[in-house]
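Model: Ready when you are.
Researcher: Fold this.
Model:
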Amino acid sequence: MRKLRAIILLASLPVMLAQAEPKLVPDVSQREIEIRYSFTGAELLLFGAILYPGGRIPTGQADIAVVVKGPTEPIVVREKQKVAGIWMNVESARFRSAPAFYAVASSRPLAELIDERMASIYELGLGNLQLSPGTGAPVDVQQRFEAGLLDLRRRSALYVENPKGVEISEGVLYRARVRIPARVPVGTYTAETFLIQDGRVVAGEVREIKIHKLGFERFVAMAAERWSLAYGMVAVAISILLGWGGSAIYRRR
């Protein structure tokens, strides 16, 4: 009988341990974002609650980090140098899976919340993005191009870090705001929420966000993707007509 009880206890141990961990109940203000001709960007509100076992809030401080990213895409970064007085593309590096958009907000600076190893596992922070270089360039060259890519996308507001972007109320409720710029690419995005305690991630949840174009913008995007040759020819023809029309008007004056 004792042996049977011991077996039952061991079998139920994973369930008991899982119940001892807190859980996240997250949500986002918009599951779909529509891009129209008048689109100037959007602001996402990420909010939710932390459910503790038995409803008991721990005495230690709990922190939240939220990450909005996607979609991943291959990208080539080119470096310009001055050659004979002319700026030219001299070197380049290819990355296989760089996120087109990445924003992280946290209740405190990430360096105070989590160690480098755990931050790298969960890709928390711009310095921990797994960009997957596609060339066999030396490490120092890869690092230079990675820094260049991060700088370019920071300046375009496509890569953002906000170390005080999450508010936690009563140790249970949290909220964060993430700005989506007007030039954001379409696709499927993920909103990840992480609960961090004592330097480790103890809970995490993911929600999907769809960003897509509507109206004439959608038609143009589909035409460029599906009928690239015809789209290019039409674009060239329109450019020629506009140039000819502009010159005709100028001559009449």
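Researcher: Now this one.
Model:
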Amino acid sequence: MTDRHDEVPLPAPAEGGTWVIDLDGVVWLAGEPLDGVGEAVGRLRRAGAGVLFASNNSSPTIGELRQRLQRAGIDAGNEEIVTSGQAAASMIEPGQRALVVGDGGLLEALAARGVHVVSSGPADVVVVGWTHGFDFELLTLAERTVRAGARLIGTNEDPTHPTPEGLLPGAGSLLAAVSTAAGHEPEVAGKPHPSLSRLIAARAPHVAVVVGDRPSTDGALARHLRAPFALVLSGVTAAGDLPVDPEPDVVGDDLRAIVDVALR
């Protein structure tokens, strides 16, 4: 399935610029590559486009993401990957203390920023990302630390996370639990919020296209960056969910279909 609005066509990769591509639901599901993604990215690069992978998933480290991309047939440098964990870290001053609800990727980003991770309060900030290690004890520790005066930062507010077996609770669900328990509204770092947008702009001054599977994040990011939004149906959004807001400029079954449209 592909749909193209002729009044807002995708720019040809040969025109240059950077394609900002989501990972979960676009390049892979639970780390398993989707069909044709390596070929699609290779075609974009050969045609003259830059590629920047932008993920709201703060769980994997950059090294783990690069390994997953290699398994999908895609070589990417550290500078070609931005995450919500990096965006969250950018919101915290070096030397501050952070209580973390999250995995290795978030811890890596905080360490690179010079943030001190603590296992209990007091803390300057509580940072909530995606993790399988979320339980009642950690929820209690996080909400009490926020009630004691810590800022609450979420890597993202995605309610779900796509896998081949269906949707799992996402980081937004964990963040909502902490926010509700603490009675405190969070600051959010990831797509489509300004912190991640700034990281993207620093590495890709000219964004040609944003490709993603979630209109509320990827689509809103595209609008903020004044770039076309290409929606894929290989992740959280299915054909039966259409129409969506914001309205995509192109809809395709997967990344390969979107690249086919751009290269026509």
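Researcher: Key takeaway?
Model: Residues 40 and 144 are 47 Å apart (CA to CA).
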